[in-house]
Amino acid sequence: MWRIITFIIILTNYNSIAHAQNDWYEKYLSCVNDSDVHAWKAMIEQWEQAEPESPDVYAAWYNYYIKLAMTDVVALTTTAPEDNQEALQLMDSTGVVAGYMYGIESYNDSILQIGYQKLDTAIRLFPDRLDLPFGKVAMLFRQQLYSEVMQELRRVLDRSEKNGNRWLWTLNQPLDDGEYVLKDSMQDYFAQLFDAGQSDYASQLVEWMLRLYPTDIIFRSDKASLLAIAKRYSEALPIYLSIYEDNPDDIIVASNIAHIYYTLGDKEATLKYYSKLVQCGDSEIEHIAKQRIKEIEQTD
């Protein structure tokens, strides 16, 4: 109700309100580091009574249910764990690795859905709180629910067009540069989708970003890279060339252009772009450039 009080009163009371919110948030953080979920729940209930309309209370409930739903299951398998996870190797009688034993995350879906419901309500009520949908996206990635990831990201981008990237974060603090945070986050999500083998979704995300930011070099480069990886060189090349025109100091782009011309058998263009890289400051790129130039000169 305080939102409809006169502007002068809001100004005079803002510091005390923010201080109270911070007090509750600090208490919440102290409980998060405690393994006792009962204490965690009791604290959130007290916070909710004091500030029932706080988006941070909804976020706290979401985190609580995620923690409650999460369990570690011991896997006994012949497949080695990913991401350098520690595992116990099981040997057969000849000393050969026969299997692995390690922990994997498992979730109680019914509890998890309660958490998602809490967060979905918060997202609907507080659509400019960027941390809320990003919190959901993080969990959807862990569950490998990529279609749902894309749905959430689409909603965020739709909202960005309405609010001009005037985003809020935890405790309703405004982000200094909402556009930068949005772009940087979407680039990270692009990388996660690509690394997970979801190139179609990665491509879709890039197209969404280019519709909003058609001159953005990073997303143009993402699109060109996806095309080049798919060996669609005739589509990738003009994009790389346009990026190079805008940013001729980008040695990665220049290297990609040179490689495409090399793959297409255009010796003149290959020499032109590799010649720009022989003293670029990157030893690996310099080595490749010198090697390719020497190869072409020896075949002429």
How would you sum up this structure, described in words?
There is one protein chain. With 300 residues, this protein is mostly helical. It has a three-stranded antiparallel β-sheet with strand order 1-3-2. Helix 6 runs parallel beside helix 8, helix 8 runs antiparallel to helix 9 and helix 10 runs antiparallel to helix 11.
- Strand order, sheet with most strands: 1-3-2
Terminus-to-terminus distance:
80 Å
Q: Care to count the β-strands?
A: 3
Radius of gyration: 26 Å
Runs with pLDDT <50, length 5+? 1-20
Structural class: mainly alpha
Indicate the percent of residues in helices.
Answer: 55-70%
Mean pLDDT: 86
Q: Count of helices? A: 13
Could you spell the SSE succession in H and E letters?
HHHEEEHHHHHHHHHH
Proportion of beta-strand residues: 5-15%
Short description:
The protein is built from 13 helices and 3 strands. With 300 residues, the protein is mostly helical.
Feature tags:
300 residues; mainly alpha; three-stranded antiparallel beta sheet; 13 helices; 67% helix
Write the layout of secondary structure elements.
Elements (H helix, E strand, L loop, with lengths): L6 H26 L4 H14 L4 H15 E8 L10 E4 L5 E11 L1 H17 L5 H12 L3 H18 L14 H18 L3 H14 L4 H13 L3 H14 L4 H14 L2 H9 L7 H17 L1
Antiparallel strand pairs: 1-3, 2-3
Helix pairs in contact: 1-2, 2-3, 3-4, 5-6, 6-8, 7-8, 8-9, 9-10, 10-11, 11-12, 12-13
